[in-house]
Amino acid sequence: MQISAKYQAVLEILEKIFQDQYPADNIIKEYLRNRKYIGSKDRKFITETVWDIIRHRSRLEFDCGFYGQNKVCDTRMILLSYLKDEDLDIVADGSQYGMACVSKKEKEKLANLSQDVYPEYVEKECPKWLYEKINNPALVESLNDKASADIRANFISREDAKNKLQKEGLFFSFTPYSPYGLRSSERVNLQNCIAYQNGEIEVQDEASQLGAILCDVRKDTKIIDYCCGGGGKSLLLGMLLKNDGKIYAHDKNINRMAKLGERADRLGIKNIQIISELKQSDKFDRFVVDAPCSGSGTWRRSPDAKYRLTPKQLKAIETAQEEILETAYNHITDNGRIIYMTCSVLPEENEMRIENFLQKHSDMTTMNMQNLWERKLELPYPFTENRYLKCSPLSTHTDDFFVCVLIKK
Fold it and tell me: What is the pLDDT of residue 66?
């Protein structure tokens, strides 16, 4: 593809993404799936350019005068602003499949881009209302960096997994905390990887691995992964139990579990049972709640998500979290545990949610996370707070991940 045609593809993708209705990852995949003629190198260029623009969206909108002014975002102008130091006669050459030539009006706008100093929330690439809620500039900035690619070994040692991957030309290092985790600084396509096809590795962020390990499951415990989604934690729990015992997997949106059976087959996990609803009499020793949340802790992977989130949506999420915790409370045994997790950085979804729950239920208390960590991982505890742990790009070089284990007295 000519450079102008590649940027035209970028523009068409961004026009859909900037409507802030659907995840960028899905839009990119659908666009490329429908255009088989685009070669692998051009696909990589288009994809990387789109993500780079998304990561700089706030500043580009500010430069163009769109940010915070309730103005309709002109996607083409955003792209031209991004390309302002390139030869615009080449990148917008007006060819049949390329970008239209830059108009006189557009040239005037480019010549008058804002030179004002960015407000701090723009500099850190975050909507103002979310920036104020998080109230941690360094953390917000870290959430705009590119994420590493984390995987885990499955039924083999991670030393063996690392060696198998190296033979396929894929180079990983060990994650610092999870005894099963491996990490690559670059995104890796594992679909054609033999170790992946053989079920010897699985994609999972290290923080999520740690959350599953801290569930502290045993074969004689009755376990439910209540908001299991794609089932990543259920699959790791199955491995930890060596296919002994049973894990019940549930999600309100059953479509999210559609590929769980297929994944379990590839990984050789045989002790997961999918259930569509709970009976009133059901009681569990481990009630795992990876709660629906804002996903703010995963912005390194999905930087577009911060622009789709609204205060109204966040309030609805908080209500859902409260209801799910009440469900968990009604379905745990005496001395049973609720393992509450989110991939959020927002206190309303984490510490405040736990405090509100404990105020309602005097027979519930938080477990000492340091003791649990050191017993399960045999590593020094890297956090200062004992009631819950908070992984983050700053502290653990993972997604932001909140875990609190609540026990019924």
Answer: 82
